[in-house]
Amino acid sequence: MSGPQILVVEDERQIRRVVRSALESEGCRVQEADSCRQALIEAGHCRPDLVILDLGLPDTDGAHFVQDFRSWSSAPVLVLSARSTEHDKIDVLDAGADDYLTKPFSIGELQARVRALLRRGRANADAEAAQVSFGDVEVDFSRRLVSRQGEAVKLTPIEYRLLAVLLAHAGQVMTHRQLLREVWGTASSDSNHYLRIYVGHLRHKLESDPAQPRHFLTETGVGYRFQL
Amino acid sequence: MPVPLSRLLFESQSVRFRYLLAVLACVLALGVALPLRDVLDLANAVMIFLLAVVLVASRLGRGPAVVASLACVALFDFFFVPPRFSLAISHGQYLVTFLVMSAVSLLIGQLTAGQRRQAYDAGHRESITRALYDLAKRLAGARQPGEVDRALRDFIGKQLGAGAWLLLPDADGAPQAESLAAGTLGTLDMQIGRMVLDSGRVIESGASERSGRRRHFLPLAGAGEVCGVLIVSLAEDAIDELPLLEALTSLAATAVERLHFVAAAQSAQLEAESERLRSSILSALSHDVRTPLTALYGMADSLAMQHEVLPDEAHELAAAIRDQALRVNGMVDKLLDMARLQSGRVSLRREWQSIEEVVGSSLQLLGPAMARHPVRTSGLGELPLVQFDAVLLERVFCNLFENAAKYAPPDTPVQVSARAGAELLEVQVRSGGDGFPPDRLEQVFELFERGGSEGPVAGIGVGLAICRSIVEVHGGTIRAFNPPEGGGCVAFTLPLGTPPAIDVEALESGVLP
């Protein structure tokens, strides 16, 4: 078999079963683990291309696993979490997880997220694209030009930098802290509103309805996700 | 109980009896001296009488001593000084005898009286010290304000013979009497008590016409503010007792303050514990209910995706199971939200953010549920940043949009608009349809209250109650009304505050303020 290898870390057998069948129908190979300890052993064994990690594991919290895993692998990590656990989500994302899915999730959504993360994993290996387009917007990185419906859009240096960071992590949840670090080099939790203002600017310049964005998505209480 | 003779002789309090004893002592001296009259010199006979006077002066006090000296001089004069058996004095030198005897008796009487007074004072002081010590012990062991009150009243009653009341402030700072005997305190007393509580100064009332007593209102000043008032009703001549009262108030203040701190610590601990219990129950419940729902939803969804394998009917059933599971999940979410909000202590993660962004994230979260209700926004881009908890405000918008989608006819738009006033920001969410029942515009925000109670629309009537709780913890208000152009509208306010200044130049040069 040659499909991508996926490690599913989830303590609930029925949910594991659903996830496995959803992934196998996409042609993935699935390895299961029901605790973080076992997951680390399995991960060393099967060298997964992607890890799906439940946040409510009984033995230790997900952030620990991600830290450990990140020390030797850059494979994407998709987190499954319950609602109203923003703190845990932020912790695990800051530790290096790439995206999260709130329970209950639909099979289609899970498959789409997995596809996006696997694609990004491969894209990272290739050279970075010089041109990106989404909606009616074109971004030309080589010439630092952004245009919408063929007309040039004027972005300030910071707006451009934020756009570049979001595009580089397309399909991935970026926490406020990660974005502040990437754009300004430092982060403190009381600077989040600067980020909100700049994302607002990008939405007003690049989205057709800034109140109902289709690309610059808010992950409330956590951060932002850019979606192509 | 038989009274010891010595006590009867020397410590009797009866004044007349003491004078009688004085006279008896003189007669006794006469009885001793008279048989020896022929043997003794006059000067030595005087010594016997002098002894009697000294004894009387030292034991019975000044008055009896003077009487004794007079009586002894008279007896001595009558029986010993020639001419005998007459009070006449033949020789001027007996006048000296008389004067010396009087002076000695007065002097000794004075000395012993002073000594007795000192001894009495020392005893009194000791008994007060002991009583204070006992009081301090009782106060230290007191576990209720009532016990402090009783201990103080016992002490003041016994030591000063005065009435006393303890006033402690209630939750609103109004003084409340602790004892059951508080009936004797009038409204005026309570008002004065309040003044003392507020000012921390001693206030003295005028003397009562009936009893001649004054009420002293003494503030109990602890380490912090005034923690109570001690009222003591003292007689006019009891001014000497004021230092004692001072000691008393500082003891009482310590006790009251200690009780206050103990109570505060206990209630804080209790609250923290019940809070911990509540939140652990909620999260366990949330996990335990959501896990099987997630599995159920996922399994139904994967069944519903098997187009080729399943007959149409089974396929539809699977989709229906999936949708129902999602609805149950939505209800569980709402009930848990409500339980969290109603548990009283919601920790808000307030940050400066934009309404526009939350509206967007709520719509994104609802996704296909809003497919048949296009949402139109106006004025959201121009609003200032407002301080709120985005996760909670997202719940407000989700509930309002869901309600609009539920009650408004399909394909009617939902309108979101907002306006910033001087101190408040008002957001309005309007939807088409019949609007709210005009007579229940208030009640729709109550828990388990539904707009159309018998209507065909499913729901548990928690959504608007959640909205109200969230808006209120943010310091805003929420109301429902039916605008004249039709449909229903929910409007809520949030306090504007002063958003942080934005230094664009610094930000653009890559410096985070």
Multimerization status: heterodimer
* Count of individual helical segments of chain B: 13
What can be said about the biggest beta sheet of chain B? 5 strands, antiparallel
Strand content of chain B: 5-15%
What percent of the residues of chain B sit in helical stretches (DSSP H or I)?
Answer: 40-55%
Query: What is the alpha-carbon Rg of chain A in Å?
Result: 18 Å
- State the end-to-end CA separation of chain A: 30 Å
Shape estimate of chain B: rod-shaped
Mean pLDDT of chain A: 88
The H/E string of chain A reads: EHEHEHEHEHEEEEHEHHEE
* Number of E strands of chain B: 12
First CA to last CA of chain B: what distance? 92 Å
Q: Give a quick account of the main beta sheet of chain A: strands, pairing sense, barrel closure.
A: 5 strands, parallel
Strand content of chain A: 15-25%
Q: Which spans of chain A of ≥5 residues are poorly predicted at pLDDT below 50?
A: none
Give the largest chain-chain interface (CB within 8 Å).
Answer: A-B, 49 and 52 residues
Instruction: Enumerate how many helices of chain A there are, as a single number.
Output: 8
Descriptive key words:
heterodimer, A: 228 residues, alpha/beta, 5-stranded parallel beta sheet, 4-stranded antiparallel beta sheet, 8 helices, 12 strands, 21% strand, B: 513 residues, alpha+beta, 5-stranded antiparallel beta sheet, 55% helix, rod-shaped, disordered N terminus
